[in-house]
Amino acid sequence: MKARRVKRLDPSASLEENAARIVSVRLEEMRSFAPAALDPANSVAQHDMRIAAKRLRYILEATGFCFGKPAQTAGRRARDLQGLLGEVHDCDVMLPVIDTHLADLRAQDATDVRERAGDVGTLDPAFAARARHRTAYRGLEVLAVHVQACRDLVIDRFVAFWREQEEAGTWDRLERAVARRLREIKERRRAEERIENAQRELEEAERKERAAAQRARQAADELAAARQTEDPPEPASGLQEAV
Length: 243
Fold this sequence. Notes:
The chain is 80% helix and 0% strand. With 243 residues, the protein is an all-alpha fold. Helix 1 packs antiparallel against helix 2 (43-63) and helix 3 (69-117) runs antiparallel to helix 5 (134-168). It starts with 14 loop residues before the first helix and ends with a helix.
């Protein structure tokens, strides 16, 4: 089963933010397979839920500390769920193997019996009664019954376990913890943006103040220079008499 794509991941963002987005998608993905997976005959949905539970478990094992106790509990329950559905999957793999082996043995014995019969027009049942693999059929049939019974038992445990976790709110608590962390991150980012904007405004005001002070000093210097040019000093009176 191909994993759902996680949107809005950002390498420059914090671990908890990216982890929250991944956990949210993985949890929703796992829960989406119910109620189909609760149908005992729906082995495809059960297999897909097992894979989804494994993915959720792995991300919680790596980042669950970001979300507190709800993540720790959900991680353990995802592991339990994966184990139960893994047992179901083992049975689903084993049953076709048994059926295939039985079919192969029957085909081999049918070929042997036909060859032993030769060109007779009617086949004597005694030939089949002496088939080479006749004693193996019963054992394989009993094994198939055992595996099917085991699957039915584990399916009952899985259904009960899933309903128990839903009633206990295991997945809901994790969902709320992740959503709460995303809200906190969003609010913190907005606060940081407000601080950055205020800092930029302060720096701009200081820059303008420095520029205004510089212009004032420049104007004062220009005024002083202009006054010196307009009012030259008068010559001393003693020097005028001597001339």
